[in-house]
Amino acid sequence: MLCMILVSCTGQKTGKENDNNDKIAIEVGEIKFPPQDVLQLKSYYLSSSVHVDSIDYLIGYNYRLHSLDCMNLKSKSVTQIVLPGDGPDAIVRLSGIYAQSLDSVWISDESERAFLIDSVGTIKRMIDLKKYLEDQEQLLINTNYAMFTSHLFYNASRHSLMFLVKHTPSNTFIVKEAFIDEVGKMATYQLSSSKVVPDMSKGYAYINFPNVNFVGENIVYNYPVESSIYMLDILADSHYTSNIIEKCTTSGDYATLEKHWLENSHFYDIMYLPKYKIYARLHADKVDFDEKKGMEKLINERDLYLMLFDENMEKIGETKLSNCRYSPFTSWNATYGGIALFVDNVLDEKNNTDDLTIDIISLK
């Protein structure tokens, strides 16, 4: 049975039981950051985590200051790495982050380059990812709450960068592995199409791309429109929400497509928790579209669910998270021993300040 425990800032706990007969229990602990000397955000749509000396850190992209904000989840402190915005080494708006260590962070930007930077923002290496693309191929490093999430990854044992690419004429997806110490050397890995919705070329607009993540030597991926998890072809059905979204029957404007997205479930990328050797995935439930409410309220009131899987991708737990508490804009990340979610929702009347607060979901 799943038991969800909420740890408040006063140390009190409240719990509720779930009738889903799950095999695992979780708890939610809140971390409130005191005022900082840097201007951090309240939540980060793009972030990466790193575990150093038994301490979890989150490194988030501060798009307002064009910096990387390093959050120490133990000391509740935030430091900042300012990124160069001018000159020959200028870095533009980021598309991906992979923290290898606190002093070695890989980032990619909208110029389709990858950079290795240290803890003071010095660029140690630059890789032009465009050189690894063929004609009619599209680089897909992206984190977008309404579309898909495909991560940048550095494989330390193979000295390689890995990223998703779309071959436009065939509408197929490939993961490319660029061996950065061997000029021109590259490996490719073809991703299979969805077994549930094999043809997403029509009716799914901008959500027909896969979510792609990397765990060790494995590529783990799924599609936002249905609940299967791939490489192992094992279904991971939700007991609470629809597991396949409906096609959009009209080819209307952006407002029509956004309405379709809200009226259907949306499945996010697969995350890995090394401490427990389990996988996790968040997904948003559909809402009843009411134009009078406005888009901001509809997006922020969507219910968010957490599903957990063992090493064999067998589902071991699912629970609904607190409503109107978390940012719906991909403001979460896996840490060594849990999932960090930024407490930031415009409908949350209890947390209506700009203070940085993070909930950590871990196994009980």
In short:
The chain is mainly β and 364 residues long.
Ordered list of secondary-structure elements with their pairings:
Blueprint: E1 3-7, E2 13-17, E3 26-32, E4 47-52, E5 55-62, E6 67-72, E7 77-82, E8 94-101, E9 104-109, E10 113-117, E11 123-128, E12 137-140, E13 142-143, E14 149-150, E15 153-155, E16 160-167, E17 172-179, E18 186-190, E19 211-215, E20 218-222, E21 229-230, H1 254-262, E22 266-273, E23 278-284, H2 295-300, E24 304-309, E25 315-320, E26 332-334, E27 339-342, E28 357-363
Parallel strand pairs: 1-3
Antiparallel strand pairs: 1-2, 3-28, 4-5, 5-6, 6-7, 8-9, 9-10, 10-11, 12-16, 13-14, 15-16, 16-17, 17-18, 19-20, 20-21, 22-23, 23-24, 24-25, 26-27, 27-28
Structure, explained:
This protein has 364 residues and is mostly beta strands. 4% of the residues lie in helices and 42% in strands. The longest helix has 9 residues.
What portion of the residues fall into strands of 2 or more residues?
35-45%
For the sheet with most strands, the description reads: 6 strands, mixed
Structural class: mainly beta
**Averaging pLDDT over every residue, what do you get?**
85
Helix content: under 10%
Spatial order of the strands in the main sheet?
Answer: 2-1-3-28-27-26
Question: Secondary-structure element order, as H and E?
Answer: EEEEEEEEEEEEEEEEEEEEEHEEHEEEEE
**Ends distance:** 12 Å
> What is the overall silhouette?
globular
Enumerate how many helices there are, as a single number. 2
- Total number of beta strands: 28
**Rounded radius of gyration (Å):** 20 Å
Low-confidence stretches: 1-19, 232-236
